[in-house]
User: Fold these one by one.
Assistant:
Number 1:
Amino acid sequence: MDTRSVCPFARLTSLLGAVGLVAAGAASAARAQDVYYAGIAYSQSTGKIGYTVRQARTEESAKQLAAAYCGTPDAKTYIWGPNQWVAIAIVEGRVGTAGFGRGPTSDEAQRKALAECKARARGAACRVALCVHSDGTRTRELRSSPADPAAPTSTPPAPDVARYAAIAFSPSTGKIGHTAGKARTKEEAQQLALKDCGVRDARVFMWGNQWVAVAVCDQRRGVAGFAPGATRDVAEKQALAECQKRARGAPCRVALAVHASGQQPPDKSPAPPQPGAAAATTATRSGPAAPAVAPASATTPPPAPAADNRGSSQP
């Protein structure tokens, strides 16, 4: 057989294969260019909403942009997604309480956001404040849900603008220090919390004029999460979530939750205080081991006081 007739055919086959690979790569790149991430951020202290659409190509970029557009120091992105709708629903007349949802349709994203909001609203009315698609589309037909008179209600204590609570923590020892019902400024609260902790490497990681909480991981000394909230329940849940992000699968528990006024709210009876802790201290909530892989989105917005007088510094 004349091999001279085979070689050109082999070269042609190889060339066609290379062209196919290039075409496949180009198609994959084109598909990647078609993906946009939407994101919605929320401010704990003001209730302000920030969002991004038709801009971010990655999850991290969407989270950063949404938080930046929110424009407050405590802004955090709670819902995001590629090529889909995202929504936030808020409680009428209550700064801070919200729910988030996402889905392939505007209707589904809104329904999920409303359902999550109603679960936290304690019978109050909810409405969707924003529903956008990652491609830049924004729906004007926003859902709402009326108040439920049969639902249990409770009124959390109002922000005590005259006093501040603060929590200090020592990463080397795990010791916690705090103050509640005494400090008139956040600087005074920080000093009192540091003094109460009494350890050289102690730092103040959370302060505010409503509830502040800390959750710890007993199996990993030095690992902790901190959060503020308009209610003790919200502050505890958020502190647990922050701790579980750092615990690498180990369980976390709420070690302390105090209100700026130094008093307990009417909606939850106080638990026995820890040794050496004030009466406002609670240690009643624990969380399961953190998942090995972080969830696709965070959907637990922490209600917070309307005043801009809360800070945090996570370890």
Number 2:
Amino acid sequence: MSSIHLTESGDIKASVAVLSFIFSSAAKHDVDSESLSSELQQLGLPKEHTTGLCKSYEDKHSALQDKLRETSLRLGHLEAVSWRVDYTLSSSELREVDEPVIQLKLQAKGAESGSTETTVVSVSSKKFRVLLTELKQAQAMMNALQ
């Protein structure tokens, strides 16, 4: 593999994907440019190519690590919560109608897609109290970690 000739669009895309994977993996594991150069040469890449690639890697190493930290473990976030309490006075479908039902409407923005998704959940008042208690406990634990 003394000379690299990329003639097709698929070859170019594959090469870019491989280089992206190699650089992001090297930055993720904090590999120095000398070790990266040695590994690339062992894979068959000519020294003159590894020298140029590793110089670029060394120049942008910290910026690449910052970008990886920024984009890893991204979670969606809750944008809005609305609720209402429904109390059915009578129903042909239910035997007992003496308990209120809480309807929660959650709007969350996805981390990857960026689109907002709406979810509606109906729970009994007992289950809502349990949910609220557990959410308060989780919030206390998260606050203790800060």
